[in-house]
Amino acid sequence: MLLLMFHTTVLTRAFYKKHPEKLLNKVYPLLAVCMIVIMVALEVGKIHSLRKTLNGFTRHEPSVVYRFGWVNQYTNSLFFNVYLIAIGVSLAFILGWILVKMKVGNKK
């Protein structure tokens, strides 16, 4: 995941250096922020759905996963899913944009 985020940041910086148009500099970061908000909402929904399915989490006695660790065969989908990958890529995209903006700001 970290390697993907690093690679996305590097590619984003190269993209913004190559295409410094004003519209791209405003629309794409805004889309990335919207993507993060949507993915966080979907991830929270996934957590609530799984908690309801398992009758609670690891500290609740009636739960299927009572006394299990947090990473187990029932809850591993909370930590490894498309929502978290999309959040990571969007954060890397925003980080690349910020790095280009900081460098452009230093040149002026």
Structure overview:
With 108 residues, this protein is mostly helical. It contains 3 helices and no strands. It has one domain. The chain is elongated and about 55 Å long. The two termini are 35 Å apart. Keywords: Membrane, Transmembrane, Transmembrane helix.
Mind sketching the topology for me?
Layout: H1 2-18, H2 22-53, H3 82-107
Keywords: Membrane, Transmembrane, Transmembrane helix
Transmembrane segments: 23-42, 78-100
Give short descriptive properties of this protein:
108 residues; mainly alpha; 3 helices; 0% strand
Summarize, please.
The chain has helices spanning 2-18, 22-53, 82-107. The protein has 108 residues and is mostly helical. The model has no long low-confidence stretch (mean pLDDT 84).
Number of structural units classed as domains: 1
Main β sheet profile: none
Number of E strands: 0
| 3D shape | elongated
* Integer-rounded radius of gyration: 19 Å
> How much helix is in the residues?
55-70%
Which series of helices and strands comes N to C?
A: HHH
Number of helices: 3
Mean pLDDT: 84
Strand content: under 5%
Task: Please state the structural category.
Answer: mainly alpha
